[in-house]
Specification:
heterodimer, A: 4 helices, B: 0% strand
């Protein structure tokens, strides 16, 4: 049981490392946000679950479950808010990106108002 | 054996914190730095839980919960500041 928890924890830590690598290497704010949110959320879930499986005799799995739920609920919200704020603050996309739907929607809305 | 794998996992996660910190220093805009700070905080929550089990102190789990709460509020405050100003 301990070995199983340790392997799950190792997988989670590798995902955390890859998320951080994506934050460092991606070319754009939005790409960085995507790498740093998805990989990091799954990585922290696996990390915490592995630790709580490996040390189940502690009897405090409830708090770990609370932390996991907290990460699941708050991480996408903060990332979404930050991406929206970065878009409306005028931080541009990278040159290699093809399509910007939110910008097109804004242009359509302004056309209707006029 | 299991302890060795746990230690390796903690060291790999710590290397992730170092990479995010490099983006926190390099990042050209405020949003880059906020993203790097967010990633660092999530990894730090995981490491706090690891330390809580490593040193057999259950009280550190509460520290992890409060740290996550404060980081969430901080990121939302930074985003609101970016969008409309204070």
């Amino acid at each position: 049981m301990e070995i199983l928890g340790a392997i799950v924890t190792l997988a989670g830590s590798i995902l955390l490392f890859l998320g951080a690598l994506g934050i460092l290497r991606m070319p754009d704010v939005y790409n960085r946000m995507q790498a740093g949110t998805k990989a990091t959320t799954l990585g922290s879930i696996l990390f915490l679950a592995g630790i709580s499986v490996g040390h189940y005799e502690c009897g405090c799995i409830g708090k770990i479950v609370i932390i996991i739920l907290f990460v699941i609920f708050t991480n996408p919200i903060s990332s979404n808010t930050l991406a929206r704020a970065a878009h409306f603050a005028g931080i541009g996309l990278t040159k290699r990106s093809v399509k910007d739907d939110l910008k097109d929607d804004d242009i359509e809305k302004r056309g209707e108002e006029k | 054996m299991a302890d060795l794998i746990y230690n390796i996992a903690a060291i790999v996660a710590l290397a992730g914190i170092v990479l995010s910190f490099a983006r926190l220093i390099l990042g050209p805009t405020i949003a880059d730095r906020a993203v790097a700070l967010d990633g660092m905080t999530i990894i730090a929550i995981s490491l706090i839980v690891f330390i809580a089990y490593y040193s057999n102190r259950v009280i550190y789990l509460d520290v992890a919960i409060v740290y996550g709460l404060i980081s969430f509020v901080g990121i939302v405050a930074i985003a609101r500041y970016l969008e409309r100003g204070i």
